[in-house]
Each structure stands twice: as C-alpha cells, then as structure tokens.
Input
Amino acid sequence: MKIILHVWRQASAGAPGRMVRYEVGNANPDMSFLEMLDVLNEDLMNKGEDPVAFDHDCREGICGMCGIMINGMAHGPQPGTTLCQLHMRHFKDGDELYLEPWRARAFPLIKDLVVDRSAFDRIMAAGGFVSVPTGSAPDGNAIPVAKEMAERAMDAAACIGCGACVAACPNASASLFVAAKIAHLGLLPQGQPERDPRALKMVAAMQAEVFGSCTNIGACEAVCPKSIKLEVIARMNRDYLKAAWTHRGEQSGSGAG
Ligand code: SF4
Ligand code: FES
Output
C-alpha cells in the first residue's frame, strides 16, 4: 500500500520547522505505524538524508515512549491504542497523513516528532511514590487489599505516561496523568500515610511545569490509550482540597489544575 506522509521536520527547538511531504510506496497492512516509519527512514538514509526522529522503546504498548499526532489525533484514529500498536490495516491505500509532535509548552520540542516529557518525571519525583523503610522485605500478603480497591488502583496504574492527554487537551492540562498517579497510590493501603503530602506536592509540581488547567473538556479521556477515566481527576481534586484544608497554613498553592 502507498501512504503519503506530511511530516513535521525541525532540527532543534530553536530551528525553524516545516511540513515535508514523503511517499512510502511499500507499506504493508500488517506493519505497525512505527514499522512504516522505519521503512521511510531506511529510504531516507539510503538517499543520504536525515531520518525522521521519533520516540519509541517497547513497541508493545507498555512503556509510554511513542506518541505523535496523526491528522490531529493523539496516537491516531484507533481508540485505546498506542502508536506502536496501531497497524497500517486501519488506513487505506493512498491515505494522506499529517504527522506532528505533541504540542504543549511544558513539552518542548527536541527534534522532528520528539518532545521532552521530563516534566512528567519531575511531577513523579515530587510525590508519585510510596516511601519504603529499609529493613527486611514485608510479607506480600501481610496487608489485605479489598478487591474493588485493588481493581480501581490497577485501572489507574495502567497509565503509561505517554502524554497524549496533554497533547489532546486544548489547555494542555496534565490533570489526567497526575490524577491517575495520585489515584493509583492513594487507593492502596500502602499509599495512605503519604496521601495528603502526595496530592499537595504533585499538584504543586504540575502547576510549576506550566501545564494548563482542567476545564472538564474530556479530550484526554478520549485519546488515552489506556482508557484512564475522567473520574480520577475528580478524585484528585477531592484529595487536594481535603489535604489543603487539613494542612492549611503549612503550604501554599492555588488549587488543582
Ligand atoms: S493518562 Fe492516558 S494519555 Fe495521559 S499519560 Fe497516562 S496513558 Fe497517556
Ligand atoms: S513504544 Fe512503548 S508504548 Fe509505544
């Protein structure tokens, strides 16, 4: 099958960028989208041209590294699917696709389709963990976890940190990502001791990274390849407000995003 690509090419954050038209004449319906880009890059390298930079790692939908806009849709047209798990059979012979990087002020461009998502790492470092005292490992079954809580925590833990929610949001809000992490840890008994400081610190870190605020549009949920639900944002707001009230006078902050 033949696919016509218009790819955002930009050598670095400070360089001018532009769409460049390419034709991939030998794409196969069984290829993943990334494999189709590999074919494009082999052609470009054979011609002595600079290959298109794009992020990827596991290619199994679990690491969160891949992700671009295809015709304005984060991760492309297939719901609940990462770019690496999107196959060319979902496109037609002769389709014309516009490929762009995630666009958000908090995700500065590195090159072509690659952006810097280290803002997510800094939010995680602010509170996205359960502190573990040193000593011998606890018995895995010593703390009972209710089935419903385990399932809800597992649903939130499915977030792979890809950033599609930010890219799709007209406000470039990171609320779905941050809320998924807060819910994942805050639903488990092991996450209770640090629940309040976690909500306060992660929301403060999100605001410091200049992500936009959530206005309940829902574009994040629509594009999330792991089907994280908007309800985690309501949960984050409750956790944040409760923690801010409980610890009033001890910290500053203007509210969840
Ligand atoms: S909430 Fe969904 S879209 Fe956002 S980072 Fe997590 S997996 Fe990606
Ligand atoms: S490359 Fe790991 S999720 Fe796509």
